[in-house]
Amino acid sequence: MRDLATSSPSRFAVIVFALLIGVFTVLFSLPISAADHQVTPFADALFTAVSTICVTGLSTVDMYTHWSPFGHVVTYIGVNVGAMGVLTLASILGLVISKRLGLRAKLIAAGDTNPMRAHGGPVNEGQAVRLGEVGQLLVTVALSTLVIEAALTALLYPALLVAGVDPIDSLWQAPYYAAMAFTNTGFTPNSAGLAPYIDQYFLLSVLMIGVFLGQLGFPVILTLYRRRWRTRLWSLHAKLTIITTTLLFVAGGLAFLGLEYDNPATFGPMNPVEAAFQAFFLSAMTRSGGFSTIDIGQLHGSSLVVGSMLMFIGGGSASTAGGIKVTTFAVLALAVWSEAKGRPSVQAFGRRIPSDVQRVGLSVVAWGATIVAVSTITIAQITQAPIQDVIFDVISGFGTVGLSTGLTANMPDLAVYVLAATMFAGRVGTVTLAAAVAASNRAQLYSLPVERPIVG
Questions:
Q1: Would 112 be classed as within a structural domain?
Q2: Sign of the CA dihedral running 119, 232, 318, 90
Q3: What is the pLDDT confidence band of residue 120, given thresholds at 50, 70 and 90?
Q4: Cross-referenced Pfam families, in alphabetical order (predicted)?
């Protein structure tokens, strides 16, 4: 396994996730996992396992009524294993690639350990996680996950009591909600979801904080822990992640508020303050959180488009969120801006972003768009459902978000398998692409003649 991890990181990543999914598919198939003590159909068990390990949150069954207490415990364990697996696997693969392969591979490793390595100049190794510190890295990731979820649980328990939940039930629901928030999964431990808590602003705010922390990613959490409020010492990766995440959160909230303020099925009956809060809550959740206080299927088509755009971008690198990642979006936006301004290079915060970063960013976007397009066409043909619903659920699966218009729960088995594959590709696709790009780097001792095709 060690040789496989170093010789083919992409294959190693796929095998690890596939094995985890296989184990949890078996667990979900056991009669003890179902509330009726019957064997869960393979398609539902597989889809739930993929959704759990890939921390997506979509489901083909009612997660509350279908599973027994044992099944809920399996789900709780699965999302934590899946989330921590994503963090540690991404970081370790970055370190392995950085040591064994070329510059393009180091670019990917930079997203997990030290983004400043990518520019090829002097590097402050105080920002990095050295190969000899892998054990410390794993311990830090595990402890940060436990500490954050424990803190969220401590805040959620009294909030659930205030909301009228039984004290005994709250002992289970609080850690469950905490795990689903930090892992950006979005499963709920009750049949009605968050709808009964639509006016419980403290509870919803805690969930938003948990989702936000999960979206930042381990490299940013590590930077904040080491540098705290000394922003000048933050890595470029941390700055781009935090700023872009905040801007998208604000832009998404304003967009949802403007598009849905008069929708009688969503924000229409609310007063301005309530509507504004729910709009920003929805903006946070479309970034990979997966929780919802409203019926997503009742959103205007324009809002579904905005939500799809936010879900496609996703969260931070080496985080529990999916999508193409906010740093990819930020780098490409900076490249467009630099081209418009006629600048010879892409720059941010006094640093030059090399062309390797831009090429990999374009590759990640193309990879993601291809997955979404193929899956959308296939599922649309199978289900004959409205295309806006199909696109939304497919991007939700690819971005491991978990929001649904209601399509996923009613799909035939063939479409379920396609969406499960989309979730799997969305979770491991970026890592796989990174390793493939890195592995394709070969030394070339000559330079070909230059010829410029017409573009645009």
A1: yes
A2: positive
A3: very low
A4: TrkH (PF02386)
The three-class DSSP label of residue 440 is coil
What values do phi and psi take at 318, rounded to 5?
55, 40
- Judge contact between 170 and 157, C-beta under 8 A: yes
Residue whose pair of structure tokens reads 């967009």 in the numeric block: 255
C-alpha 149/C-alpha 175 separation (Å) is 7
Q: Give yes or no for a contact between 54 and 91, defined as CB atoms under 8 angstroms apart.
A: no
Q: In whole angstroms, what is the distance from residue 315 CA to residue 210 CA?
A: 13
Residue 446 resides in a domain: no
Q: How many other C-beta atoms can be found within 10 angstroms of the C-beta atom of residue 242? A: 19
pLDDT confidence of residue 168:
93
Number of domains the chain is built from: 1
Largest Cα–Cα separation, the chain: 73
Distance CA 172, CA 157 (A): 9
The CB density around residue 39, as the number of other CB atoms within 10 Å, is 13
Round to whole Å and give the CA distance between 400 and 424: 9
Contacts 24+ apart (CB under 8 A), 22-27: 22/49, 24/48, 24/49, 24/52, 24/53, 24/74, 24/78, 25/49, 27/74
Instruction: Give the start-end residues of each E strand in 264-353.
Output: 346-348, 351-353
| 322 part of a folded domain | yes
Give the domain range for residue 68. Answer: 2-439
Sign of the CA dihedral 374, 379, 381, 382?
Answer: positive
Closest CA to 337 of 326, 347, 325: 347
Residue 423 in tokens: 């979730």
Contact by Cβ (8 Å): 403, 290: yes
> Cα separation of 166 and 146, whole Å?
25
Q: Give me the pLDDT at residue 68, please.
A: 94
SS3 of residue 38 by DSSP: coil
For residue 185, give the amino acid letter.
T
pLDDT at position 26, please?
Answer: 96
More confident residue, 236 or 299: 299
263: burial class by Cβ within 10 Å (0-12, 13-18, 19+)? middle
Residue 219 forms part of a structural domain = yes
Distance CA 84, CA 78 (A): 10
Render 63-85 in DSSP notation, one character per residue.
HHHHB-HHHHHHHHHHHHHHHHH
Cα–Cα distance, 348 to 116 (Å, whole number): 12
